[in-house]
Amino acid sequence: MNRLLMALALLLLAPAMAPAMARAEAPTADQRLILVTMDGTRWQEVFRGADKALVAEPKFTHPDWKETVEKAWDTGPGVMPFLHSLPAQGGVLHGNRDTGQCMRVTNPMWFSYPGYNELLTGRPDPAITTNDKTWNRNTTFLEWLNRRPGFAGKVRMYGTWDVFPYIINDKRSGVPVNGEAPGALPTETRTMRMAQDALRSAADMRVLYVALGDTDEFAHEGDYAQYLASMNRDDDFIAELWRMAQADPAWRGRTTLMVTTDHGRGARPGAYWTEHGSAAAWKLAPQDYTIADPEGFTGSDAIWFAAIGPGVHPAPQLPLKTACLTQSQIAASALAALGEDWRAFDAGAGAPLPFFAGR
Ligand SMILES: [Zn+2]
Q1: CA 257, CA 78: separation in Å to the nearest integer?
Q2: Ligand 1 mean position to 40 CA, how many Å?
Q3: Count of CB atoms within 10 A of residue 207's CB?
Q4: What is the distance in A from the centroid of ligand 1 to the CA of 215?
């Protein structure tokens, strides 16, 4: 081939090759993350749907809602259709103890601040024994990223709970909570709208954390139908966030979505589902509980996890008797999905979940 022909061939090939190369590089270039937490949402409802005994109890399920609950939310996919669609799309939904899966928190408290700290820092801190508004001494992966080249100023959080500014230490970390409405306590609906507005308008954002809390609120009130309705609404919201990300060239193909919870709830029959916390937590503050359980709310350490995106490798059908996965592995998973070195963040953090291993 003479030089002219060669040059012509390269010219013709170049445009075709460029996007292919860009795609091949995608896993390490400009990866993005959407993390959503649903406070105090039990694996039981995620996978089994409504508990018949709790639906039959008018004290927990208002008669006006009974039919909806029985007809629409009697299965896990009924309550959370989007989360249950993830495995068929190359994602994962893990934590179904009925099929031998297992995931749990490793902090000894089984309530929110210790849970979010473990989730966001990659390790439990036994010194965190309350939900008090104390500035977190630990560094979350959000804060670490917000100091990294390529991520600085591109990490945002939206949530309804007024302890979050303390947990992510917004003063020190510089990670803004609730964007244009800092310090405000928006309703969940408003939180959802602010997060969606941010996704739509902040083209340079790379990490979006949305913390939803209605599930825990309604559960503590003992309102089972509204607890299920919140889960269903959250699932809709998460599906819409994912749809928006897929419709936006800045996010499509380079975004990993993760969904999880800070803790479970009591698993024993009766009113125990309304509460959560370990025996140690109970002993520290029995006045915080509406029903007595000095032994702790059994099962409220059990959690679940869902994810989809280029960072996720769903390979495992994990062996049934596999070790229980832990909340402390989520921070490293998030960093792995972003193509970041989680050991540089904290070599002592939980290693990435097996769905993210190899990255
Ligand atoms: Zn709670």
Answers
A1: 21
A2: 6
A3: 21
A4: 9
pTM attached to this predicted model: 0.90
What's the rounded Cα separation, in Å, for the pair 196 and 87? 24
Report the separation in Å between the CA atom of 359 and the middle of ligand 1, taken as the mean of its atom positions. 34
Strand residue runs (E) in 12-125: 32-38, 92-94, 103-104
Could you tell me which of 245, 260, 255 has the C-alpha nearest to residue 326? 260
Rounded to the nearest angstrom, the distance between the alpha carbon of 216 and the centre of ligand 1 is 5
What distances in angstroms separate CA 71 from CA 57, 83, 233, one per listed residue?
Answer: 16, 19, 16
3-state helix, strand, coil in the chain (%, to 5): 45, 10, 45
**pLDDT tens-digit series, residues 18-49:** 443 333 333 457 899 999 999 999 999 999 99
How far away, in angstroms, is 313 Cα from ligand 1 center? 32
Please tell me the distance between residue 176's alpha carbon and the centre of ligand 1 in angstroms: 24
Give the Cα separation of 156 and 146 in Å (integer). Answer: 9
Number of other CB atoms surrounding residue 170 within 10 Å: 21
pLDDT in tens, 119-162: 999 999 999 999 999 999 999 999 999 999 999 999 999 998 99
Residue in this structure with the two tokens 């001494």, named with its chain if needed: 137
Domain range 39-346, CATH architecture: 3-Layer(aba) Sandwich (3.40)
- The C-alpha atoms of residue 145 and residue 335 are separated, in whole angstroms, by 9
Tokens encoding 59: 């004290």
Ligand 1 center from residue 221 Cα (angstroms): 10
Query: Among all chains, which residue has been given the structure tokens 């103890």?
Result: 97
Q: Read off the pLDDT band of 319 (50, 70, 90).
A: low
Whole-angstrom distance, CA of residue 274 vs CA of residue 220? 5
Report how far ligand 1's centroid is from the alpha carbon of 333 (Å).
25
Query: Residue 157 CA to chain centroid, in angstroms?
Result: 12
Å from CA of 298 to ligand 1 middle? 14
Rg of the chain over CA atoms, in angstroms? 22
What distance in angstroms lies between residue 75's CA and the mean position of ligand 1's atoms? 24
Cα–Cα distance for residue pair 349/358, rounded to 1 Å: 16
In angstroms, what is the span from residue 213 Cα to ligand 1's centroid?
9
